[in-house]
Write a structure and sequence with these properties.
Elements (H helix, E strand, L loop, with lengths): L1 H23 L8 H13 L1 H19 L5 H17 L7 H23 L4 H34 L7
Subcellular location: Cell membrane
Keywords: Cell membrane, Cell shape, Membrane, Transmembrane, Transmembrane helix
Membrane topology: Multi-pass membrane protein
Length: 162
C-alpha cells in the first residue's frame, strides 16, 4: 500500500510539472516539483528511499515528457545525495540545509537535462541557464511546501518503500 501511495504522489507531481504548470504559469516558469520531492524524501527517509523516489519520479517525468529514458533519473541523483547529506545536518530539521542547497541543485539538474537533450544552438544554452536561475528561486520557495507535504505523508503512514 505504501509503495502505491508513493507512486501516486510522484506521478501526480510529475503530471502537474509536465502537463499543467507549463500551460498555466507566467512565462512557463514553475518549480521542479519532483526534484523537490526527491530532495526532501532523501533528507527524511534516507538514501535508499531517495533512490527509489528518484527512479519512480524520473521514470514518470521521462514518460510524460517523452524524454530519453533515464535522463531525469540521472539528473535527480545529485538531489538524492544532497538530501542524504542534509539528513546529517547540525540543525534540528533538514529544512534549512535543503533550502540552502536547492538553488545549486536546480542548476545541476537543469545542466544534466540540457546535456541529455544537447541543443545545437547557443541561444538554447543561454536560455536554459537563465531559466535555471529563475527556477532555482522558485524551488527555494517551494521546498518548505514540499517538505510539509512529504512530512505529513510520513505521519499518515506513507513510510519507506523497501
Amino acid at each position: 500500500m505504501q509503495q502505491i501511495m508513493i507512486t501516486i504522489f510522484l506521478f501526480g507531481a510529475a503530471a502537474l510539472e509536465v502537463l499543467v504548470l507549463p500551460r498555466v504559469t507566467p512565462f512557463g516558469l514553475f518549480p521542479d516539483l519532483v526534484l523537490g520531492v526527491v530532495l526532501v524524501a532523501s533528507a527524511l527517509e534516507g538514501m535508499r528511499a531517495g533512490f527509489l523516489w528518484a527512479a519512480m519520479g524520473g521514470l514518470a517525468l521521462d514518460l510524460l515528457a517523452a524524454s530519453p529514458l533515464g535522463g531525469h533519473f540521472l539528473a535527480l541523483v545529485p538531489a538524492v545525495l544532497a538530501g542524504t547529506a542534509a539528513r546529517q545536518s547540525i540543525y534540528r530539521s533538514a529544512l534549512l540545509p535543503l533550502m540552502g542547497i536547492v538553488g545549486g541543485l536546480t542548476l545541476g539538474y537543469r545542466a544534466i537535462l540540457l546535456f541529455v537533450h544537447w541543443p545545437a544552438r547557443w541561444e538554447a544554452w543561454l536560455d536554459a541557464g537563465v531559466t535555471a536561475m529563475l527556477v532555482g528561486i522558485l524551488n527555494l520557495i517551494a521546498v518548505p511546501l514540499v517538505y510539509g507535504i512529504v512530512l505529513l505523508a510520513g505521519r499518515l503512514g506513507v513510510r519507506r518503500a523497501h
